[in-house]
Amino acid sequence: MTRAPYDGVVLTCPVTVPYVRYSNETAHWWIARGLRGALDAAGLKPAQIDGLSISSFTLFPDTPVGLTQHLGLSLRYLDTIPMGGASGVVAARRAARAVQAGDADIVACVAGDANRIDSFRQLLSAFSRFSLDASYPYGFGGPNATFSLIMDAYMAEYGATRADFGRIAVAQRANALRNPHALMKKPLSLEDYLGARMISDPVALFDCVMPCAGAEAFLVMREDEAIRRNLPFARIRGTIERHNAFADDPVQLRGGWAMDIDTLYAQAGCAPQDIDLLQTYDDYPVISMMQIEDLGFCEKGAGAEFVRAHDLTIEGDFPHNTSGGQLSVGQAGAAGGYLGMVEAIRQVTAQAGPTQVKDARLAMVSGFGMVNYDRGVCSGVAILEGAS
Amino acid sequence: MTLTGPKKKDPQKRTIVPTLPPATRSRAGLGLSVAAAQGRFALQHCAECGAVQYPPRDACHACLSHDLCWKDTQPYGKVLAETRVQASPDPYFRERLPWRMGSVRLTAGPVVLAHLVDVRRGEDVQVELRLDRAGQGVMIARPKERSDDMEDDPVLRAMGTHPKHRRILISDATHPVARPLIDALFAAGAAHVFAGVPEMWRRPHGVSALEGLENVSLLPLDVTDPQSLKDAASEIGGKVDILINTARHIRPGGVLGQDTTAARDEMEVNALGLMRLAQAFGPGMAARTADGVNSAAAFVTVLSAHALSPDPAFGAFNASQAAARSIAQTLRAEFAPSGLRVACVYTGPTEDEWHQSLPPPKVAPKTLARSIVDGLQKGLEDIYCGDVARDLAERWRSDPGLLEREITGGGA
């Protein structure tokens, strides 16, 4: 059965609550600010929304249920998307279906996380059962160690070099220098990247994101509602999600995107060359390179050659992670899974300001999340189109 | 790589406070630790479809059966990817960086993350389960051919109890195992042996042979005498890296047909003596588990395998052995925060005057010595010496009720 299109539903009011490295504020505080920002952008009062989708790692002991009372919301659609880096795409597609079916009129999708001193270590130490049993006892390198193994195997398999991954990081830093919200303010050269200290070979300092606090949000509503309120919006041309794909691959050299990508392009009625900009989930450059392959921009294993042949900056021939991505903006927990989505909505609605890609119409947003044991388990992609 | 001996300790410096690697495990995950404590390589197998899986789960990932069991598994594989962790938020690893780990595809199927010992990506390896400093089972990938200095690798040294460069206290040098044990410890690289002698004034049998041995010090030590323990601990307590309790009082006989004199002596030496030893030396050892090359590592006690299920012919003695085993289990919990390992060596009937009338197989002192040192080299908690002990333990694990009846002559 072919999947129904996402007709009549739009994404609007992209909001970023500027990140800070450490903050004593709670996830509740960050989420409230993200929600308020999106409502303000739409000219809505809290009582006017009837749906909420939340992604956060640091709400404990609350769940989004607690947030309804905490924030004074009466809802008929309440969702929690615990998918880390895939949260933005998955939240959008599920909220879109709820609005399309009439189960909700306006859904606010919000991701936000706190980052106190030592909270990252504490979050890691109870991240998943398989991590407790089978990953942390081996050096407790966290995701850096997990992705160093993936990067090591990827380099051995496809011949990519550290300089190839460096191109991704360096281009993103150039993009970030235009983004006033990015935590990284200094230029990054390829020499800086290559000379950085090793964190978990071959992962070095500039392969890693900086944990921080922050929030991201957007609204999902019917197209006629957005038009009535005079809001710039993006349509969903197609979207897919996949969990625990290719479980028999001994090392994750491809993600779940590869399993459903043809379905996505078929639903969206477009091809890779039609995409104006790409937002990948960049917890590590190797994962961005893998996405460029698995999303069909080049053959499997040709990612290194692709980034050598293209300019990944805002004004380049392949604009990629235009906000600077998590590598240069920072990783605000689950909000890291919203960063690309929120930036893509801004881009296709011509609201990206200093990071705006000229004539951006079609954007692809890719998500990837949750290292349960030795690999990221969740993946998702959406193709957004600006209304013109 | 060859591990060099410790530098002379600077008394002005604070002794490093022991930290532990992450210790939390799921209930299923503890299966690895159980296997590692015995030196077995076991993984979860599905009883219905035969799938082998890792990490441990509560249902089969192939058929959803909940009928899972731990089975000895082929311990071979190939390294898929490797790294050196150079930054870790965990205090234990942070003190020991860089730390080598990687992923290994087992021939049995699953991919495991493992500590890497002298192996690289693409190499065929053997995988062992060992106890780490937190007392939990972890995967070690090492070359298929074991080398002499493999145990010197910092990864293994950090979690192990190898006697190399360590100073060992044998609590009772009058036990027949003492001499072969001293030889085996030195062969394994031990630095020094302190040998306790109860009632030194009696010139006990066998002790004179130890006098004048290089790097062996005899000292008065009687596990039933608190003052002698206090004196010994104040003299050498800060230098004991491994303690091996060999003190044993044994008399044949069950419960009926005699008074409790022998039983009381057996309890005094075998059970309360173990307690007193732990009270005298334990706290000092527990404070020194991160003290460099010759850090404190293990507290070992020798038990009869009938601690698990008694032989009525030695019923009173076996009661003291069961008590000692129980005390050792409590000590294991009490020492856990320090990482000091508690090992029990279960032996079958030993070749000595008290078992003279029993038929073979019996455990020769040399064999017992080899088992103890082998267990220390592998960092085990449960060491079974000899066929009788291994057989008894196997039957005890599978059905203790049946074992009791078999010992008393049933099941012909």
From TrEMBL, chain A:
Q: Does the keyword Membrane apply?
A: no
Q: Which Pfam families does the entry link to? A: Thiolase_C_1
Key words of the record: Transferase
Q: Which residues form the Thiolase C-terminal domain?
A: 264-372
SUPFAM superfamilies tied to this protein? Thiolase-like (SSF53901)
Please give the Gene Ontology molecular function terms for this protein.
acetyl-CoA C-acyltransferase activity
Task: Name the InterPro entries for this protein.
Answer: Thiolase (IPR002155), Thiolase-like (IPR016039), Thiolase_C_2 (IPR055140)
Full protein name: Acetyl-CoA acetyltransferase
Instruction: Look up the signal peptide feature and give its range.
Output: none
UniProtKB/TrEMBL annotation, chain B:
What InterPro entries has UniProt attached to this entry?
Answer: ChsH2_C, ChsH2_Znr, NA-bd_OB-fold, NAD(P)-bd_dom_sf, SDR_fam, Thioester_dehydratase-like
Per the record, the domain of life is: Bacteria
Q: Name one Pfam family in it.
A: OB_ChsH2_C
Domain ChsH2 rubredoxin-like zinc ribbon, by residue range, is 35-68
Q: Region (Disordered): which ranges?
A: 1-21
Q: Where is the ChsH2 C-terminal OB-fold domain?
A: 70-131
**Protein name as annotated:** Short-chain dehydrogenase
In which organism is this protein found?
Answer: Lutimaribacter saemankumensis
